[in-house]
């Protein structure tokens, strides 16, 4: 078989273009910091890397949920802390008002302060963060507490009632392996984070056997009425109930603090998980910049050498002779 000059030229140009294409491809990989640009270049590694990317996406979602839950619990903690501080001040005022040294006028003045405390408690109960009422239970989109003719209602139910309150739960998926009970359709406890803080539980509902309200708003209102009427007949029982309510507020404050600490721990763990996943992603998809740079230099030198050889391999054309 006779090898013609045209065959030599075509073969040379094909190899030269192939070398240039490889060099351009390597340059793109170096610029992108990736060991491959197409899945077809390394299907096995690409499949592993895809799973890592999916994991990173889930971790980012969990981190967003942790941040949202943390914002919610921080607001709840701040509100209950404010309520706790107010309870201490209220106890001091009531202790002063029930003293034998207080006159009827003094008690009327203290009653006015307690009425103001009532208004402040109502505002705390309806604390709103990012268009959500933090004490709304499962329904955070509607104002939980309303007043009508001096009666406090929680989602339309009189807080003086002993039942009928729909507290519910609102769960955030934080990567704890959230599961749903197939029979009840409810989220399995411990597999997701419950951000619900029903105001009915925080501020109390119903009344005890003696008819003393468990709700701090109404309890405070009854004590204020006693001061206004200068009637200390049953004040001791109400003070005892107020102390019990205050103790419950302290317990809830501690519980919210524990939840906040757990969210901080979970956030730190997700940061570590994300870092590990990114390291694995770099190992699978990343390119060794030093090795790639050396290889690119070798390919560039070979390409330049091939260009030099082209002047010897390619035949002269008629234009060369005419020149």
Word description of this protein:
This protein has about 325 residues and is mainly alpha-helical. The protein has one domain (about 50-280): f41 fragment of flagellin, N-terminal domain (Up-down Bundle). The protein contains eight helices and seven strands; from the N terminus they run αααβββββββααααα. It has helices at about 5-30, 45-95, 105-125, 200-205, 215-230, 235-285, 290-315, 320, and strands at about 130, 130-135, 145-150, 150-155, 155-160, 170, 195. The strands form three sheets. The protein has a three-stranded antiparallel beta sheet, with no helix packed on it. A hairpin with a 2-residue loop joins β1 (about 130) and β2. It starts with a helix and ends with a helix.
Features:
mainly alpha, two-stranded antiparallel ribbon, 323 residues, 8 helices, three-stranded antiparallel sheet
């Amino acid at each position: 078989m006779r090898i013609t000059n045209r065959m030599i030229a075509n073969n040379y140009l094909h190899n030269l273009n192939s070398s240039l294409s490889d060099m351009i491809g390597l340059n793109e990989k170096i610029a992108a910091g990736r060991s491959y640009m197409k899945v077809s270049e390394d299907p096995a590694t690409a499949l592993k890397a895809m799973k890592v990317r999916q994991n990173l996406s889930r971790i980012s979602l969990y981190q967003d949920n942790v941040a949202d839950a943390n914002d919610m619990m921080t607001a709840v903690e701040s509100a209950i802390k404010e309520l706790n501080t107010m309870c201490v001040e209220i106890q001091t005022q009531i202790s002063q008002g029930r003293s034998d040294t207080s006159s009827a006028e003094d008690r009327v003045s203290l009653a006015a302060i307690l009425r103001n405390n009532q208004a402040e408690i109502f505002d705390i109960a309806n604390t709103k963060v990012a268009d959500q009422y933090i004490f709304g239970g499962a329904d955070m989109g509607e104002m939980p507490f309303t007043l009508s003719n001096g009666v406090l209602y929680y989602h339309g139910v009189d807080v003086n009632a002993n039942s009928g309150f729909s507290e519910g739960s609102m769960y955030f998926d934080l990567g704890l392996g959230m599961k749903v009970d197939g029979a009840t359709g409810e989220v399995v406890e411990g597999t997701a984070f419950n951000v619900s803080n029903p105001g009915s539980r925080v501020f109390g509902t119903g009344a005890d056997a003696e008819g003393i309200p468990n709700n701090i708003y109404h309890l405070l209102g009854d004590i204020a009425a006693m001061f206004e009427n200068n009637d200390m007949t049953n004040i001791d029982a109400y003070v005892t109930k107020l102390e019990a309510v205050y103790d419950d507020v302290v317990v809830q404050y501690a519980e919210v603090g524990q939840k906040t600490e757990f969210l901080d721990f979970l956030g730190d763990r997700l940061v570590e998980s994300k870092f590990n996943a990114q390291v694995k992603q770099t190992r699978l998809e990343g390119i060794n910049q030093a090795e790639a740079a050396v290889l690119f230099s070798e390919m560039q030198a070979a390409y330049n050498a091939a260009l030099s050889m082209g002047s010897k391999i390619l035949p002269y054309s008629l234009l060369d002779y005419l020149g």
